[in-house]
Structure formats: C-alpha cells, structure tokens
Structure to design on (403 residues):
C-alpha cells in the first residue's frame, strides 16, 4: 500500500523551488510558493546577496525591514552562476527540483548555458518560471524592464492619480507583485499539467501583461467606442455613489453603486425619496449625476460623526469603512479574528509583525515557518545533500569563491 503524502507545512510541502531571482518580481512568487509549504532555496551571489537585503526602510544600520517579508520561508545558499563551476552545481541541484524561478533579463540564463532546453534535458519534469519586464519573446524582450515601466506600458500609470496632476504611481511595487502572482498561477497550472503528463514547461510572465490583465474593460472600451479612461482621483467614472465622504472628524468610504444598496443608503440617510427620484433611481442615472450625488451625500455625512456613519451603514447593509493605515490594521478586530497579521521571531529584529499567508486553505493551510535567512545560511545543508558533494568538494568550491 502506498504511503500517503504528508502535507505538514502546506499544500506544496512536497515540492522544491530554486529561486534565482532578485528584488521583487521573482522573489514575491517564491514567497507565495513558500507560504504554501514549498521548500524554497534562494540562490544568491557569494559575498553579495539579493539587493533586497538592503532595500526599503532600515533602522540604526540594520538590514532592510522589507527583506524579512519577501524572504520568509526561504533557505539561502550562495552560488556564482557566472562561473562554469557554479553552472555545473546548479545543474546538479536541478535534478532534485520541481520549479526553477528566475527574473533575469531574457537571454541571461541561456548565456550561462542554463536555458530551459539544457535544464529540461537533465530533468524533464522541471517547471521553469520566468518573470521579466516584456516577456521572453518579442522586439522588447531584451530591454531592461522594471516594474514601473511595466505599469506604464500596461496602462495603469496613466489612470492613477488626480486629473489635475501628472500620472501617479501606486504606493507599492504593484507591477512586480502582479507579475509574480500571475507567475505563481502559471506555475501551479503547469504543475497540474505535469501531474497528468510527467512533463514540465516554461511559465513566461511579463510585467506589462500582468498589469494589462487587470485593466478591466479599458482596452475594449477604446476598441468599440474610442473612449480613453482618464485619471479620476477617488472615483470610477459612472460608478456612483462610491467615494470617500467627509464626517465631522474624518473620512468614510461608502460604496452603494448597486440599485438595492443605494436604496438602503437613502434609508440610512433618512432620505428614502432619493431612491425613487428619476435623477438617481438607476445605475445610469446616478452615473450621469455622479458629482451632484457625491456632493449630496457629503453634505449629509459631514453632519455626522464617523462612528455614526459606520453604524448606520452597518445596520442598513451598505458597504462602508475607514481608510486604514498600519495602526488601524493592528487594532482592528477583524484582522485579529482571522489572524491576518502575525508576529514572527527574527534573530536580528526580535519580534516582527507582518501580513499572514493568503488565501486560507481549510485542509492544508500555509504558514510562516521561519524568518529571512542569513546569506549562505543553508550551504552545508543543501550542498551536503547532493550525492557527489563530500566535505572536501564543498571546501574547494568555497576556496574558488563559487559558493
């Protein structure tokens, strides 16, 4: 009788990932896979490491506070892939690997003799996850492509911000993270295919295409009507009411743009007649008078306390909420009830608070099993597990600065 597979740390706990990438677009995909239990072995240049170790906010000369999040649940080994000896070591590691993840400029792996055809000949089941600015093909493939450029090319930058200002950026590296998320979706799709056929394949995730995929009907609207979306600040045109409204002491976001929800909002405001007024009675009418309707709601909300508005919205079933900053998240009971923020022990920082694994799985939940690793912390463990790597050979690779 075949022994059942144990998923001790999550749904992917029987899988191994070699993460060769740097910064965000590749490593965030590795974080997602690691969160769901995969063994993620991060390969970093000796004596240098991933630049993310130094990026983001720092305190008192300590390492980056970004690094413990994106490098959680990972092991670190050092390996110089520019040296032939390092390339041979990687090939040996590939024999025991399910996923190889990289986000170098296209052609880099091939230049090192580590293209997919070469690695698949060693391990036909290998799934190679490739994240880049423009993808692996096309006239732009070999251009340098950071997330910001993909956000602009994919259409996001143009529509973000207030119409009175130049195009803005979202306050996070959304292009990189989207490409990494789509790469993860592709990797798991390829894994399903491998289970049926035994064959791996390449997952090609381009930043600009990941951003484009989130652009809703933006392209189709232009194709059919010639309409180009512009920057609209806090609203979506013709989706009303859905905006940030003033209260006596702050702001509340209210989204009541569905007919039935709008009726409930009118009741909560003590103005039920608005719901049957032809000027606001349906989606199209409200969209045509969006600015007028927002002013009307704002006049009402500005006479109420924030708590009163939130209570009324809750009692009448109208989606509403505050605009959260970290302090709000840390004291919110919904966050606490779902354990959405966890405390992770870190050897340099002590206890660190960070976002938990998402989504939640009922049978095989993901977890944060360890803080970010020191550079090369797992060299002995990983290299020692290779059949041909006795202590003497590992020592020789160290002397040659290969690892």
């Amino acid at each position: 009788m075949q022994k059942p597979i144990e998923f001790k740390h999550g749904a992917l706990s029987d899988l191994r990932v070699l993460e060769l990438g740097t910064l965000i677009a590749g490593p965030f995909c590795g974080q997602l896979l690691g969160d769901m239990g995969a063994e993620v072995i991060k390969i970093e240049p000796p004596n240098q490491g991933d630049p993310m170790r130094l990026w983001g906010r720092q305190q008192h000369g300590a390492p980056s506070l970004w690094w413990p999040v994106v490098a959680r649940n990972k092991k670190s080994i050092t390996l110089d892939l520019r040296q032939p000896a390092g390339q041979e070591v990687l090939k040996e590691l590939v024999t025991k690997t399910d996923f190889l993840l990289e986000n170098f400029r296209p052609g880099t792996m091939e230049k090192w003799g580590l293209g997919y055809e070469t690695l698949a000949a060693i391990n036909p089941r290998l799934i190679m996850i490739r994240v880049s600015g423009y993808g692996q093909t096309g006239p732009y493939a070999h251009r340098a492509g950071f997330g910001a450029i993909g956000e602009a090319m994919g259409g996001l930058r143009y529509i973000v911000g207030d119409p009175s200002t130049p195009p803005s950026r979202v306050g996070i590296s959304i292009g990189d993270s989207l490409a990494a998320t789509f790469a993860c979706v592709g990797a798991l799709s390829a894994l399903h295919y491998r289970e049926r056929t035994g064959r791996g394949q390449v997952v090609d995730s381009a930043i600009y295409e990941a951003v484009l995929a989130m652009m809703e009907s933006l392209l189709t609207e232009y194709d059919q009507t010639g309409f180009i979306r512009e920057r609209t600040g806090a609203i979506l045109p013709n989706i009303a009411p859905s905006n940030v409204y003033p209260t006596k002491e702050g702001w509340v976001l209210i989204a009541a743009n569905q007919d039935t929800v709008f009726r409930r909002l009118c009741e909560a405001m003590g103005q039920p007649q608005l719901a049957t007024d032809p000027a606001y009675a349906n989606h199209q009418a409200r969209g045509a008078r969006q600015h007028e309707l927002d002013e009307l709601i704002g006049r009402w909300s500005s006479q109420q306390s924030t708590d009163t508005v939130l209570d009324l919205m809750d009692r009448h079933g109208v989606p509403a909420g505050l605009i959260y900053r970290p302090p709000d998240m840390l004291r919110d009971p919904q966050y606490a009830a779902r354990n959405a923020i966890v405390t992770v022990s870190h050897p340099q920082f002590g206890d660190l608070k960070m976002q938990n694994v998402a989504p939640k799985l009922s049978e095989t939940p993901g977890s944060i099993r360890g803080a970010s690793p020191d550079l090369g912390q797992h060299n002995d463990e990983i290299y020692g597990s290779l059949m041909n790597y006795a202590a003497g050979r590992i020592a020789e690779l160290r002397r040659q600065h290969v690892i």
Q: What stands out?
A: The chain has a mean pLDDT of 94. DSSP finds 18 helices and eleven strands in the chain.
